[in-house]
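User: I'll paste a sequence; please echo it back and then give the predicted structure.

Assistant: Echoing your sequence first, then the prediction.
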Amino acid sequence: MQTEPNETNPWVPEAPRVERRAAVDTRPSYLRLGPSQPGRGRVPPPVSGGLPLWTPRHGPVGGWWWVACHGGAGTTTLALAAGGSDAERRGWPNAERPPRVPAVLVARTHARGLTAAQEAAQQWASGAVPGVELLGLVAIADAPGKLPKVLRDALRFVAGGVPRVWQVPWVEEWRTGTSPPRGPAVTATVRLAADLGRLVARQREYP
């Protein structure tokens, strides 16, 4: 049987299309709202106790650890999209001795995710994780569309307790698996990676 010249074989993947990369905006994409250092003695630890602590045997690939505030936060996707290392154990990679370990909290923007982020931020602010250099919080959209007011207010409240906040919008291709996490189309993660790279480099220069 002959096939028409313009007919494609569904079992043979098409050659990848070459996308033109737009110039990357080098301006910081985060909001700077909260304290840069823990407020020891001023902030009590969360009633829940917060996230567990563990001591990494090596430094993070890429310069920082992604710390999930709850299950399904998106740390694996961020590690593929923006570099860094997934802490995997859903806990603080707390260093036993200097220098402190750079870490970024990750949470979804639903109510459970923001509550978990608040508890993790409170744990850090209480001074319970002295071996961590918290760079900030990444809030990943839990659904397409605009956040309801109650969740916007909750995110703003949590943002006041961490050094920086990045927001990553809903990416339908991540959900359906039709596109890999890494790609020029995901502008938010490109800028996020650039921001974190600069922050880690600055920390190494001025420990």
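Residues 107 and 113 are 5 Å apart (CA to CA). Helices lie at 75-82, 111-125, 149-159, 172-176, 187-205.
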